[in-house]
Structure formats: structure tokens, C-alpha cells
């Protein structure tokens, strides 16, 4: 019996070590053993937040959105008088190849987001941060690669056509809504919530309009990636949820227990209340899981910034309390890893 237990223990340790190696390889790629995206967790370095901190954080996000829509619609960044004294020219700006209908959406949203930048700068006055370095070119390709867990060829561009433009817009709008929703309880000045709530409402209108366009195209296959729009959006939604570390995102289509499909027009919780995200969670999304990078290569301007990753705690190899019954769990875990390695191929 002792020989059997000893053999069982050795085999269990071997299996768990193999599982651990498989997990390590997946985590290096940004994946977990269930095939979802993984991002290391960070927190934001900050003193007690002031309204200025919160509005400047929002201003960074508005700089990003305003420049994306302005470039897509007009082929140029927002006017330099909105950048601040040391504001930076965004990278990757180009006019999108849009039909007249999609172009009308792009122009309307560009004007709204530019108005948001102007409003926040006026509200903040001399405390307004300058426009940071923004990447609205290659960062979209990096985000798409992270979402699908592979390198797309050619690299994804939101400027290629109507559907690609709306997919690019989808990345921002839901994140913007959750950012304002999360910031609202933190605001102390009686006049500031009205500004934030008004901007939140318009961002939500934008998000709904974009979802409506994507739902209409949900079964369309995107060339050359050979994947349907709904699948691409599901991958983006999973990426954002994993980056923020919570169940706070939804794609375009969900299937009920009765296998019936339903469109997700307004993403929210079980009470149909919009999701909230903290500044830390939003930074994880726009930095694509890095301390800085993604859509903000040098990070955002202002007092809110993510702290460096803490080193992972050492693994305690002294615990060998593995039981014979854990063989099956270890084998099952490895099977789950193997089954999910291919990921979503687009």
C-alpha cells in the first residue's frame, strides 16, 4: 500500500508540474487555461482622488476618442489649440475608407468628442493636462492580436472599411461609459457630476449606435480573417473583461439556456444597470495590460498612473499533500489546456 501511495504521489506531482508548465506558457501569451485572456493585476498609485484628478483622467480618454474619430472622419487630428502647450501629435492618424452612411456617423461622433475635450478643458482651466502621446494606428492591431491570441495578417486597421471602423469604435465606447459610471460616485463638487453625467449619456448614445450597426452586421464574415463580426466582438469583449478583472462586459449576441440567441443592445448587469470600472481597470484596457503602452505609449497624463507589477509570490513546493483523487483533476486540467490552446482563429 505504501508503494502504491508513493507511486501515486510521484505521479501526481509530475502531472501537476506538467499542468503548471502548460499554464506558465499560456500566461506568457496572455491566456489562461480556459482559453480566456489574462492580464496581470495592477493598482493605481494615488492619494485621495480630487475632482481635478478624475476630470483629467476623463480628459485623457476624450483626447483618445476625439482624435480617433477626427482622423477617421476628416483625416486629421483635433485642432492643436485643444492639445495644451506641450500636447503631442497622435500616431497612426489616417482617414478611414467609409461609405457616406458610416462617414456621417464618424463626423457626428468626432464633433461630439471634440466638444467633450473642449468642455473638460474649460472646466479644468489651468489644471487641464496636455494631450499625451496617443497611438491610434498600430495599437488597434495590437489590441486585435491580444483579443484573438495570435498575430493577424494583415494587421487589423479600423480605417479599412465601415465594419472595421465600428469595431474600432466599439473598443472605446463601452470602456468610456464604464469609466464615467465608475467615476461618478467619486466626485465631490456639486457642479461636476452634471458635467460627467452629461458626457456619460452621450457616450452611452454612441455605444448604442455602434452596437446597432455591429448587430446588423453580426453574421457578416470579415475578409481576410474569415471570422464573423459577432465572434470578433466577443473576443474584444472578453479582452476588456479580462483586462479589468471582472464580469463587466458583454458582446453582441448571447445564447439562453434554451439555445435562443438574443442581441445585447445595452450591456449591463442583471438589473440592466451599466457596468462600472475604476481608473485602474480602464488603464488596464487602454494600456493593453501593460504598465504603459497600447493606446497611450507613454501612459496618460495626470496623477493617475498604474504602479509597476509586483513580483509573483514564490511557489511553495513543500506542500505535497496531493491525493490519489487529484490525478483525475490534474489530467482533466491538462486536457482543458490542450483543448483550448487553438483559441479563436480569425
UniProtKB/TrEMBL annotation:
Question: What are the UniProt keywords, alphabetically?
Answer: Signal
**UniProt signal peptide:** 1-22
- Presence of keyword Iron: no
Q: What is this protein called?
A: Desiccation-associated protein
Q: Where are the annotated segments for Disordered?
A: 297-320
Amino acid at each position: 500500500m505504501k508503494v502504491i501511495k508513493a507511486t501515486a504521489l510521484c505521479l501526481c506531482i509530475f502531472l501537476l508540474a506538467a499542468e503548471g508548465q502548460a499554464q506558465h506558457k499560456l500566461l506568457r501569451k496572455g491566456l489562461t487555461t480556459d482559453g480566456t485572456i489574462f492580464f496581470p493585476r495592477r493598482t493605481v498609485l494615488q492619494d485621495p482622488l480630487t475632482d481635478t484628478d478624475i476630470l483629467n483622467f476623463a480628459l485623457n480618454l476624450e483626447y483618445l476618442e476625439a482624435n480617433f474619430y477626427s482622423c477617421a472622419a476628416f483625416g486629421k487630428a483635433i485642432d492643436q489649440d485643444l492639445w495644451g502647450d506641450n500636447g503631442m501629435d497622435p500616431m497612426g492618424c489616417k482617414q478611414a475608407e467609409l461609405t457616406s452612411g458610416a462617414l456621417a456617423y464618424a463626423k457626428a461622433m468626432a464633433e461630439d468628442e471634440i466638444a467633450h475635450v473642449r468642455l473638460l478643458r474649460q472646466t479644468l482651466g489651468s489644471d487641464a493636462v496636455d494631450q499625451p502621446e496617443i497611438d491610434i494606428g498600430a495599437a488597434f492591431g495590437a489590441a486585435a492580436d491580444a483579443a484573438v491570441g495570435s498575430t493577424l495578417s494583415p494587421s487589423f486597421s479600423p480605417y479599412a472599411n465601415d465594419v472595421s471602423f465600428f469595431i474600432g469604435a466599439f473598443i472605446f465606447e463601452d470602456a468610456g461609459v464604464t469609466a464615467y459610471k465608475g467615476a461618478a460616485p467619486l466626485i465631490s463638487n456639486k457642479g461636476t457630476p452634471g458635467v460627467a453625467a452629461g458626457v456619460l449619456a452621450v457616450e452611452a448614445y454612441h455605444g448604442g449606435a455602434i452596437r446597432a450597426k455591429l448587430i446588423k452586421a453580426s453574421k457578416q464574415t470579415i475578409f481576410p480573417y474569415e471570422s464573423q463580426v459577432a465572434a470578433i466582438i466577443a473576443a474584444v469583449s472578453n479582452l476588456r473583461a479580462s483586462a479589468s478583472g471582472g464580469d463587466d462586459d458583454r458582446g453582441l449576441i448571447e445564447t439562453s439556456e434554451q439555445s435562443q440567441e438574443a442581441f445585447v443592445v445595452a450591456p449591463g448587469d442583471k438589473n440592466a444597470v451599466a457596468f462600472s470600472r475604476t481608473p485602474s481597470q480602464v488603464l488596464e484596457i487602454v494600456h493593453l495590460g501593460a504598465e504603459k503602452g497600447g493606446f497611450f505609449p507613454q501612459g496618460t497624463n495626470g496623477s493617475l498612473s498604474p504602479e509597476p507589477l509586483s513580483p509573483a509570490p514564490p511557489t511553495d513546493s513543500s506542500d505535497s499533500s496531493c491525493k490519489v483523487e487529484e490525478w483525475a483533476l490534474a489530467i482533466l486540467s491538462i486536457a482543458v489546456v490542450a483543448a483550448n490552446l487553438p483559441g479563436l482563429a480569425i
